[in-house]
Amino acid sequence: MSSAIVSQPHAVDANKRKRSVMIVVACTFIGALAQVLIKFGAVHLEHANFLSTALSIFTVPSLFAGYCLYGVFAVLLVYALRDAELSIIYPVIALTYVWVSILSVVVFHETMSPLKTIGVGIIVAGVAVLGRGGTR
Predict the structure, then answer these.
(1) Distance between CA atoms of 112 and 104, rounded to whole angstroms?
(2) 52: in domain
(3) Within-domain flag for 50
(4) CA 44 to centroid of chain Cα atoms
(5) What is the pLDDT along the chain (136 residues), one digit of tens a residue?
(6) 100 Cβ partners below 8 Å, 6+ apart?
(7) I need a labelling partner for 110 at 20 to 30 A (CA). Which of 48, 96, 117, 134 fits?
(8) Boundaries of domain holding 27
(9) What residues contact residue 119 under an 8 Å CB cut-off, 6+ apart?
């Protein structure tokens, strides 16, 4: 006997949708912080092969913390998806790229070229446009 998963349409409460979007915005900060921690841990690995790199996730505190934050990110995302449309929620996750770009300049002193700045602006504009499309 097989059972199929059938999506049941349901009305989305505006307040729940707004809460879900705010949760996902918080997820973008969490995801960016996770990336910074993973990068910080990765630069401290010396000539590691694949196996020792995989094991270092459990032995290097910043790597472990970064991946734990990814777990928090995933749980919060599932929670947010209960009450909002995927087509609204998922594009907001692109803001993670914005925060990572800013943090990479601040924390790792990477350069932000004019072209990268334009790219970040396009991401922000795209998220804003997609977000406005979901309010109708």
Answers:
(1) 9
(2) yes
(3) yes
(4) 23
(5) 555 665 555 566 888 888 998 999 999 999 999 999 999 999 888 777 888 888 888 999 999 999 999 999 999 999 999 988 888 888 899 999 999 999 999 999 999 999 999 999 999 998 888 877 655 4
(6) 31, 32, 35, 36
(7) 48
(8) 14-133
(9) none
